[in-house]
């Protein structure tokens, strides 16, 4: 089992920045990758960024956030971060941290953190 806790959400004006944190506990060594999803009211959940936990440290981004968001990890703190810059009202959503773990690639979700961007 993996337990995830997100933090760092809040309200910001357009053009501003926020950094989301995701702290993992439990079977940390089983985590293969961590991703950030978001879901805006009335919209489908969207995968926006991901990072592998191997030495390749591969990252990927949705086109909607590429060049504005950056995902990173700190193995010492068991943390994954999402640095968000140039935020726009359309970035308003609940942001979720997700860990893919184990041989069967089970996914574990955090509780979500609200990000609100005003124009």
Kindly report how far apart the N and C termini lie.
Answer: 40 Å
Contiguous low-pLDDT stretches (5 residues minimum) are none
* Main sheet overview: 7 strands, mixed
Number of helices: 0
**Beta-strand percent range:** over 45%
**Rg, Cα atoms, Å:** 14 Å
Tell me the total number of β-strands. Answer: 11
Give the overall shape, derived from the CA principal axes: globular
Structural category: mainly beta
Which range best describes the helical content: under 10%, 10-25%, 25-40%, 40-55%, 55-70% or over 70%? Answer: under 10%
**Element string (H = helix, E = strand):** EEEEEEEEEEE
If you average the pLDDT, what whole number results?
Answer: 96
Main features:
11 strands; 119 residues; mainly beta; four-stranded antiparallel β-sheet
Provide a quick synopsis of the model.
The protein has 119 residues and is mostly beta strands. The chain is built from no helices and eleven strands.
Overview of this protein structure:
With 119 residues, the protein is mostly beta strands. The protein is built from no helices and eleven strands. It has strands at residues 2-7, 10-13, 18-26, 31-39, 46-52, 59-61, 69-74, 79-84, 93-101, 106-109, 113-118. The chain is globular and about 45 Å long. The mean pLDDT is 96.
Helix/strand layout:
Elements: E1 2-7, E2 10-13, E3 18-26, E4 31-39, E5 46-52, E6 59-61, E7 69-74, E8 79-84, E9 93-101, E10 106-109, E11 113-118
Parallel strand pairs: 2-11
Antiparallel strand pairs: 1-3, 3-8, 4-5, 4-9, 5-6, 7-8, 9-10, 9-11
């Amino acid at each position: 089992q993996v337990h995830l806790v997100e933090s760092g959400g809040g309200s910001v004006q357009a053009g501003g920045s926020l950094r989301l944190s995701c702290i993992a506990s439990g079977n940390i060594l089983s985590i293969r990758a961590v991703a950030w999803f978001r879901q805006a009211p009335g919209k489908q959940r969207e995968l926006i960024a991901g990072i592998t936990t191997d030495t390749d440290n591969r990252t990927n981004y949705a086109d909607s956030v590429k060049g504005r968001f950056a995902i990173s990890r700190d193995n010492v703190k068991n943390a994954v971060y999402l640095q968000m810059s140039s935020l726009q009202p359309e970035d308003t959503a609940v942001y979720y941290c997700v860990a893919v773990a184990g041989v069967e690639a089970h996914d574990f979700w955090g509780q979500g953190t609200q990000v609100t961007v005003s124009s």
